[in-house]
């Protein structure tokens, strides 16, 4: 935390912090567009409206290579933030996203989309690691939560916008429109000051002082500079090998294993097949009461509302209970979806079943956003000390990338091996295990300061 004034100050003095938060929100909005892109356009490849020929296996790889890109993205995110700073890393991330949209515009075969979607996968991990570090460096304590919440909601809004745009415009027009917010956030980040923490780590003290005063004109500059110097001196003295050794300390190793297991549950709950193939699943479910493209829009719209509600519930109800409730809700949604396809295969009239996949998709999105989506990230920010938080985030993201790739890549192969209903029931069973794991093994840190959490972890 940079700014420690003894009394609150008017928000109008923090306009540059809000601009930084807004730029981060636009970045996550663009990342959301890359995720929302998948559902409408992958569905098009199985229709007469296909932009160009693509086999079932090729469509599966277009979907899964996005997840494969997340693994190197975790490594690049760590390297960029550790050595170039979060602002520079996010500018580079924006340039990569611009390249991906240009490739989509020029695409005339699946090879172009392979490269574009791989870059998008890299971008989501770099963005996920970078923006919390940047906002943590530049924001005041009284608006930090609001800035982070605003940024995360940009991701959900981007997914929803991608679903809506994809239903009505061509793939190339989608990419042209998406270039506008991508260029916008890059330009904003170029113009705003670098983080004072990064400038201090490079011994640019005059620039660091200017940065502090620009982000907070009422800051006590001598106190803030001294605080940042002490923090930078402590962390810069720690080598990468030292960080690995500290991560291997029993309390950190246990915390890391807990977060990784939560990532596994979050990625194998059905998220990636649902997010990638939602429109296709609804079409296979013989839903005719509404246009299939409407269901992702409705589900993700309500998911945004659920995400906003989670901002209150995470602290009011607690991490452990929300994880259990979320797992149970997703279990119910996957059970219902599997039952729908089982009844279809049994010959029941699809007209009497149409409400089941629609309600299942909505229930899944709401319940996922109210626990499984954010609890791993919350615990990641709480359980680890400052020296290893970036490393822990990178390791967690790397495992999440492997899980996500495996989940979405295996989905198409499972469809060929077993009945679709059994796939969703497998996800439901895994969510039962997730609820049990959460009930007994997810640590509850509600209401504790970071120091109290570290003291608690040390005692254990």
Automatic annotation (TrEMBL):
Name this polypeptide is given: Facilitated trehalose transporter Tret1 isoform X1
Subcellular location: Cell membrane
GO molecular function, one term: transmembrane transporter activity
Bilayer-crossing regions: 14-39, 91-108, 114-135, 147-165, 171-192, 255-274, 294-314, 323-343, 355-379, 391-410, 422-442
Swiss-Prot/TrEMBL keywords: Cell membrane, Glycoprotein, Membrane, Sugar transport, Transmembrane, Transmembrane helix, Transport
Membrane topology, record value: Multi-pass membrane protein
This protein's GO CC annotations: plasma membrane
Major location (coarse): membrane
Matching InterPro entries: MFS_dom, MFS_sugar_transport-like, MFS_trans_sf, MFS_Trehalose_Transporter, Sugar/inositol_transpt, Sugar_transporter_CS
SUPFAM superfamilies: MFS general substrate transporter (SSF103473)
PROSITE patterns: MFS (PS50850), SUGAR_TRANSPORT_1 (PS00216)
Residues annotated as domain Major facilitator superfamily (MFS) profile: 13-446
């Amino acid at each position: 935390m940079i700014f420690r004034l003894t009394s609150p100050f008017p928000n109008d003095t923090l306009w540059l912090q809000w601009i930084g938060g807004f730029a981060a929100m636009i970045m996550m909005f663009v990342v959301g567009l890359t995720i929302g892109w998948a559902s409408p356009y992958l569905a098009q490849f199985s229709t007469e409206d296909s932009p160009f020929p693509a086999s079932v296996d090729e469509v599966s790889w277009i979907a899964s290579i996005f997840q494969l890109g997340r693994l190197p993205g975790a490594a690049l995110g760590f390297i960029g933030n550790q050595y170039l700073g979060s602002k520079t890393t996010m500018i580079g991330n924006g340039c990569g996203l611009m390249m991906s949209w240009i490739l989509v515009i020029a695409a005339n075969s699946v090879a172009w989309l392979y490269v574009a979607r791989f870059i998008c996968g890299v971008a989501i991990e770099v963005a996920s690691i970078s923006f919390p570090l940047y906002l943590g460096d530049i924001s005041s304590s009284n608006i930090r939560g609001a800035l982070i919440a605003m940024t995360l909601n940009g991701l959900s809004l981007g997914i929803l916008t991608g679903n809506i745009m994809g239903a009505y415009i061509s793939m190339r027009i989608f990419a042209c429109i998406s270039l506008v917010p991508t260029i916008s956030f890059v330009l904003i980040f170029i113009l705003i000051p670098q983080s004072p923490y990064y400038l201090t780590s490079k011994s640019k003290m005059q620039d660091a002082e200017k940065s502090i005063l620009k982000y907070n004109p009422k800051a006590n500059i001598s106190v803030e500079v001294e605080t940042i110097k002490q923090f930078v001196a402590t962390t810069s003295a720690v080598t990468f090998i030292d960080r690995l050794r500290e991560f291997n300390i029993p309390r950190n190793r246990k915390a890391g294993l807990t977060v990784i297991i939560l990532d596994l549950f979050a990625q194998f709950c059905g998220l990636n097949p649902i997010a990638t193939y939602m429109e296709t699943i609804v079409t296979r479910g013989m839903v005719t009461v509404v246009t299939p493209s409407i269901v992702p829009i409705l589900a993700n719209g309500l998911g945004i509302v659920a995400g906003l509600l989670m901002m209150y519930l995470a602290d009011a109800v607690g991490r452990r209970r929300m994880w259990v409730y979320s797992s149970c809700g997703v279990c119910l949604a996957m059970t219902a979806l599997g039952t729908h396809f089982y009844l279809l295969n049994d010959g029941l009239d699809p007209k009497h079943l149409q409400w089941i996949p629609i309600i299942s998709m909505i229930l899944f999105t709401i319940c996922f956003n109210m626990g499984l989506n954010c609890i791993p990230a919350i615990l990641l920010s709480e359980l680890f000390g400052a020296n290893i938080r970036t490393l822990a985030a990178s390791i967690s993201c790397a495992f999440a990338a492997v899980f996500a790739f495996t989940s979405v890549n295996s989905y198409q192969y499972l469809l060929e091996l077993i009945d679709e209903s059994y796939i969703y029931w497998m996800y439901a069973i895994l969510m039962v295990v997730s609820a049990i794991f959460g009930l007994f093994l997810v640590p509850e840190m509600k209401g504790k300061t970071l120091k109290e959490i570290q003291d608690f972890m040390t005692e254990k």
